Fold:
Amino acid sequence: MIDQIVQGVLLGGYYALVACGLSFMYGVMRIINLAHGSLAILAAFLVWYITEQLAVSPFIALLIVVPIMAALGWILQRTVLDRSLRSGPLTPLLSTFGIAIIIDNGLFERFGADTRSLAPNIGDLSYKSWTLPGGVTVGQLGLLTLGVAVVLIVGLQLFLKYAPLGRAIRATAEDPDTAELMGINSRSVYAAAAAIALGTVAIAGAFLGMRATFDPYSGGAQLIFAFEAVVIGGTGSLWGTLLGAIALGVAQNLGAQVNPKGFLIAGHLLFFCVLAVRVFAAGGFSLNWLKALWRSQPA
Amino acid sequence: MLTATGATKRFGNFIAVDRVDFAVSRNEAVGIVGPNGAGKTTLLNLLAGTYPLSAGSVSLDGLDVSRTDAAARCRMGIGRSHQVPRPFVDMTVFENVFVAASSGGSCTRAEGYKASIASLDLCGMLSNANRTAATLGLLDRKRLELARALATNPKVLLLDEIGAGLTDAEASELVTIILQLRATGITIVWIEHILHVLLQVIDRLVCMDSGVVIAQGKPEEALAHPAVIEAYLGSGVA
Structure:
């Protein structure tokens, strides 16, 4: 039981890493980026490609991929997302969905359907672990992932709180029109925020590649787990995302304990329960529509 | 220094501001009055760059800024406050002002701190600096709105009904602050319905109705203009 919880927390660390970019983007721009998972896979492929071509460690490759993904974020925001944002909340959903399809199929076209992994490139880090008293084993990669996730989220929080750009991002997130009147160029701030979000996606993609296998169509699953972590933790809060991700990981591991198929079910169940509670708490889930229906019945 | 020439704003078929010529010179304080829907706030938005012009031009210190966006105009020295204060409610009062100083005022960190504290002090908000803006009452929100506009280091300050919703005592506190701002050499353009508050500050009054300027000049002369009386009280009264 304790072992399962510990493994769940470590898994949650990975989910937090994937989810923080999604949470950040939603928090700042109110964009639910449906291409988030696919972008993580794109980053994983880039890291894998550079690792293979230059025969370097994936961590070195990451130094190249983070700026590439950040630049891609900037460009995406300027060319696609900015325009979609102006035409209501539905358009960004559609356009990011389109981007996801383009990325998935582009990767398939270029790299084929083979399953890849970065695990062979990181030596024994992929399987080495420490055994704690009581027989609980802690994987080194898992712990590193959790550590990176925590550092990243703490770092982002500090950045938002204290850095000039962080403040400008918070101001723009609250009220872009007023921010303009304070001399903040909202479009540039949004583009910077998208660049930061995709920088974190690059890191998430690399860790995905190290801990598991991936193929061009793995993006969807990553998106779902990231989305669930964000919703469980409360949208737009990075601390919440960290907690939500850990809750999701623990729920999945405990579910797997009950039944081998319980892994996914438990995760989705937790997501569903949190969602239902949220809707109830917000008062959105009332039976007024039933009453209205009743009254509208012809006598 | 801030001039609008033939400024026009159409929303579909509705012309909110119709070929308005407006100018304010350095260190002048101009009041704008007019019935609801006269186009006062729209004119202010055209000056600040919140809306693009449908026709005409706006210039600041002889430089055409018609195509310049609001953020850049703010950095060039046009400050703006809203009728309904719009603070960044999740941030502290200080952060609200500091973000304005560092973006709009193009301040470094140290300068930004100084400018923020100075403008908070001037607006009597220093003791509230570490409160979250969401917890402020209306008067304090208006003060914050002023302090924030001030922190962007404006040459000209556009105020939109800053006295609306306040008691007379509260409004006169704001008048004191605005008079102090004038003394520091800031040019003021002020929309206000509460005339006796406005008249304590301004040199010149512009009266608008249905998107056009119907009278302007010394406050008492402008107010006595038949067109103004008609706009406010209907025809046949004067």
